[in-house]
Write the structure tokens for this entry.
Amino acid sequence: MKPLVSAVRLGKKFGDHQVLHDINIEIMPGEVVCIVGPSGSGKTTFLRCINQLETIEMGALYLDGELTGYRVENDVVHRLTDKEIARQRRITGMVFQRFNLFPHMTALENVMEGPTRILRQDRQAARDTAMGLLARVGLGDRADAFPNNLSGGQQQRVAIARALAMQPRLMLFDEPTSALDAELVGEVLAVMRDVAATGMTMVIVTHELNFAREVADKIVFMADGRVVETGPPEQVLEDPQEARTKAFLAAVVSKKQDAA
């Protein structure tokens, strides 16, 4: 079985500041990978590189075996066109920190928009699928609600349904609960557990370590733009081998104790 995502010595700069250094990660089909680490460690940037919302300057990233963003002809590297990049991006669905719903559309219309406009689905088929997905995320009775009439947790669940409506093979989650009040976090995590249980390949940037421990097949700990440690949750979170990982987990525990 070949990796669905493969980063090979991937690097990324913003101006003179290098935010990703020599990233090597493989993600297999059906695998749930949680990326954890301190703020500013490059987690979100790496996720955006997978979805080609950011370009990479060094190394390479392969999606389903295909080099993303570029093609090589006669040893010359060419940037792909926007249309070619959009084609590659089609197998991914992304859920952002902020919900990014269209405010002038109902929940149902938000979920239908991509399938009808991009996948060219029949409107009735797209509507049926959208209603099924809204029911799946617990919002079958809010299909006609506009985003400003939904809670943050409900909006994020609509965003998950919208991403799933595009029939992705890979779901990317960028801190999907960070913008939510504490009492709304659980309802979003419950939907994500349900998605994971279907066998969907998922890459999740998260600070929710208990959730990561529960659902992840693999934990990637990043700091200072580098992958510091990778392994199953019981290794990385319970018995870390690297000093940087140990310091991060100790700080998380201390912060929770102070909050209590």
